[in-house]
Amino acid sequence: MPLIGERVFRAFPFNPAAQIHTICSLMSAVPVPVRTFRADALNVEVFATYADLSTAVAHRVRDILATAIRTQGSAAAILATGNSQIRFLKELVTAGGVDWSKVTLFHMDEYLGVPADHPACFRRYMKERVESLVHPKAFHYLGGDADLPLDECARYTALLKAQPIDLCCLGIGENGHLAFNDPPVARFDDPYWVKLVKLDDACKNQQVKEGHFPSLEAVPPYALTLTIPALCSAKKMLCLAPETRKAVPVKNALQGPISTDCPASILRRQAQCDLLLDTDSAALL
Question: How confident is the model at residue 192 (pLDDT cuts 50, 70, 90)?
């Protein structure tokens, strides 16, 4: 009887990369990348599909949190919102293996002036997709409708600095932003951990295209955001950036200059970061 590898190679005689990927997938329930490489200090992994990417990241996050809890008794993580994170978060909350009662969670941005029940509110996004399902020890939220936004930035900074951050899960915006650090306001040496920023039009257009607001004029002009130093303070970073619409910013981040013109380019200096793509977002590399 032919070995499993022989059967796979007969089924896919003209694509060695696909053969290797299929063999590895048969040997493990967790999808494996079809391509890996480094961009300066950054580890980059490309998965065959968005579904594979989401499953692999969910398992990786689960393992990181479980290890932190086992070794130090608790874990703290920052999570991202956005359409690209929805499938991963859905798989994470159903994966099991994490004692969420020992996990403290944060998110990384919020629109200024948006109430907690607004459909586009990131607090609502996280409560519905994460907090209400796993019931963590704490989920600290940025109050975008706080009466004193600068005081809110200071409050959230103190919460972030109260313990080491074990993990930061983030994405890349269509303009290359990380959180709401758009090119005009991003600083790699930012003295703040949380700040009030003006959103640029490219960022606001993305929010409209993703269906969060009906028009550019409806998008709040300002937001609160964790800064790039705050995001990069995490012991481990996983940047999930799927879909064709992310191909240009991914290319700019990996092959352009390390510059705030593409804030995500700073990831190339983060040895603790894995950039996780699908074949669509990696199409220009």
Answer: very high
Amino acid at 82: G
C-alpha 176/C-alpha 212 separation (Å) is: 19
Measured between alpha carbons, how far is 212 from 214 in angstroms, rounded to an integer?
A: 7
Farthest CA pair distance, the chain: 72
Domain encompassing residue 15: 1-30
Structural domains in the chain (count) = 2
Phi and psi at 159, nearest 5°, equal: -65, -40
What the block records as the tokens of 132 is: 């209400």
- Residue 104 shares a structural domain with residue 4: no
Q: How far apart are CA 199 and CA 137, in angstroms?
A: 32
Q: How many CA atoms lie within 13 A of 160 on its CB side?
A: 27
What global pTM score does this model have?
Answer: 0.89
**Rounded distance between C-alpha atoms, residue 280 and residue 247, angstroms:** 7
Token pair in block for residue 42? 């950054």
118 with 190, same domain?
Answer: yes
